[in-house]
Structure formats: C-alpha cells, structure tokens
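[Automated response] Your request has been received and processed.

Submitted sequence:
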Amino acid sequence: MSLRLILILLALLGFLFSQSGEQDEFDEDDYEYEVIPNYSANLYVGYPLLKASSFEYYNSNVVFGLSIGTPFGFAIGSFFTNIIGEVFLYDFSTESEDFKGVGVQAGISPGFFIGDISLSGTASGGIFHAGTGFIAGGSIDIPVGEAFEVRVTTRNNIVQKDEGGVTGWIGAGISLGYEF
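Generated structure:
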C-alpha cells in the first residue's frame, strides 16, 4: 500500500512540475534557493492505512493535529532543519477498551527545496495516553500563494499501550499550513 502512495505522490509532483510554467528553456539562474527561517502552523487530518498486528484490535479513525514549525535550526543552501512541536487528537477505542488521548511531542524536520516545493521528513517523540511514543514520516509541501501551503504526508506511529508493549500504524494525511 505504501508503494502505491509513493507512486501517486510522484505522479502528482510530475504533474505539478509540468504545469509550473510555459518556459521553453530552463534557466537555473531564474531560481534562487534561499531558506528564510520562520514560524508555521499546520492543521493536519490523517488516517491509518496499515496497522501493526497489535493494532488490528482497535478501530481506525481520523487523527487531527496542529503542528508548529519554528525558525530554530539551520539552513545550508536549499537544505534546512528546524525544530517542530505538535499536539494531536486520536481515538481508536473499541467498545471494551479505550485507546484515545492527546499526543504532545517535539522533534526535528529536515528537508530541502526543489523550486518552491519542499520535501521534508519528521522525527519526533512525546507523550501519549499510555506513555511515550515516536513518529517518523515524510511530506511534500506545495505552496498556495505567498504564505499558505498544502502538505501531503505519510507517518509511521509507534506508541505504548495501556497493558504494556507497543503498537503502531502507518498513516497518510493532508495538512493546510500558514507561514508567518
């Protein structure tokens, strides 16, 4: 399933690049790669696509989140890394067992720009309803106007369970962001 998602995202990128202009010749001097550190806020909606066998017992529901990107980090040319924070709501409860809460985490987001589009990763950890957890993922950020962006993302989630042990899922989602 994740290979299919990657192929769809690559096709989307190819389409976006083919629509980016009517220039007959590409002149690299027309583009300046400059990363300007700033804050960003992103509203996220995601859904589990693949579940670990220890997660099969739980219901699949939509996950909602708010992430804040900070200007704290570094940039070298078109490559950047910044510190991020996130709060998200999840509820995978069944009739007999609660598996829900608010996740609060912090991490880093390295990435690079290709023109106006950025490809980035996420590695973060934090507190969940039953203990700690970790998320790793990747995203494609597509600008919409000067300050807004649409982000298509996939995330691998590993969290502790109430009765001990860990479980996880791979989800995909979309977020709407604003840079300020």
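Summary generated for your ticket: The helical segments are 2-18. The chain has a mean pLDDT of 86.
If you did not submit this request, please reply to this message.
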